[in-house]
Structure prediction request, 520 residues.
Amino acid sequence: MICLKTLRRLFLATAVTVGGMASTASTAFAADEYVYDLVHSSVSFKARHLDISWIHGRFNEVDGKFSIDRQDPAKSTFLLTIKADSVDTANPARDEHLRQPDYFDTKQFPTIEFKSKSVKAIEGGYEVTGDFTMHGTTKEITITLMGGKEIESRGVKRVGFSTELKLKRSDYNFDKGAIGPIGDEAIVIIDCEGMSK
Amino acid sequence: MPDLLLFLKAAVFSVSASAVTVLALTFCRWTADRAINNRPPASAVLLVSFVPGVWTGYWSLGFSFQWPPGNALARFLEIILPAIVLIELVASLQKVPRAAVWFLRTIVAAVCGRVLWHESVYLVADSWSGLTSQTALVLVGCLLSLMMVWLILFRMAESAIAEILPLGLALCIQASGLAIMLAGYIKGGAAAIPLSTSLAVPVLMLLVMRRQCDIRGLLGIGIVSLFSLLFIGRYFGAVSSTQSVVIFFAPCLAVVSWLPIVRRRKPAVARLLCLALISVPLLIVLTQAKSAFDKRMAPLISDSCSSILLTPAAIAIRGEAQP
Prediction:
């Protein structure tokens, strides 16, 4: 009986030690994980109108998560999911039209996604190559994420990134008839802040 | 704003292709024998001439076809439309049992909605069929409505006003196209143009040539096309359920031809009466759709506002700068 008790204690002690070691290891070496902070971030875009001015808009519902491995940046990952239905150009009629199949076709393609495949550290940020999926078409793109500085505010670790990318709507299978008065090229501006879990 | 010149071009191309095919098939003979029964049957002429009309229309509209089809409209044009044309061609062969033909038609009616919804927000990922009880119920309702209209029109295809039915369907398809456009889906609405012209032209030509024909094959194609366009307009565009239901059931108003007061009249008068009656709900729906468009969308195409609806041709007509 005593022998059984001793064995149980020994097992518990071993389990606690191994568990503790594992948690220490994860703190020291694993990447820091962050979730997209919708309140302090924005995904906006602008496109030429009649080649004389710009129309601005934004997506109000965005989700994402990223992990940053500062020791080995190649192990970092970035994932951003935009709800196409949340398009907002400050004109409800135009937003309704943009949701239709002539443009974003949000009932068929509800999300716009970026999923990183490789990450490289550069001065002042990261160069991220990944799959960008919009309107049912996936293309590999490389974006330059500037920032990455981490601060702690009210017990929450925060990290911020900014990037700007140019996309051609014709590359993403948008209806050619809808490309004309609105320029083919759109500039997407992403300013995002991540909070550690 | 829709590109009217492009739509006109598509209609002209579609009409021309259908008309040339009807003429070519009507005057061709299987062999050197000059007997009248040596010509292709009129029902086959109707079905075969539909195909070049539709294809030429879509080609002139600039539609491109990719496989696999990426959206509901492409799935209709690349899967459902060829399937129903093939089934109706098979059905036009006298040797094929009617039960087999109706079995195939029922399959098309049953899968039509599911195919159009494929990979859309209406389906859920964690189910084999992608359907929830609510969406399954919608599809059952669609199947029953489709089969009901199909059976009613087929029953009327044996009456004196038979030839008017494809024309009524062509009117409804064109009305559905306009309703879809007025709701903001321009390409979806434009898709109705080649369909309606290719349905109407062969029937009109055979009527002018006074050739008797079985229009049931063309009716099947027209009913499935009308259903699919309205389904796309309702679930992917912004056409309302009421508008869709009214347009879809409008061809059934031709049942007035069964009333003794209509049956007693000359066939030409009865046909015109039926066509006029079918047009009434369509006009009401389109008036309502236009007024909704004026309220919602017109500010976007007014001179004072920046517009995403203007196409280059429309801008050229208005004399504004080209982008």
Notes: The first strand of chain A starts at residue 32 and ends at 36. Residues 15-28 of chain A have pLDDT under 50 and may be disordered.
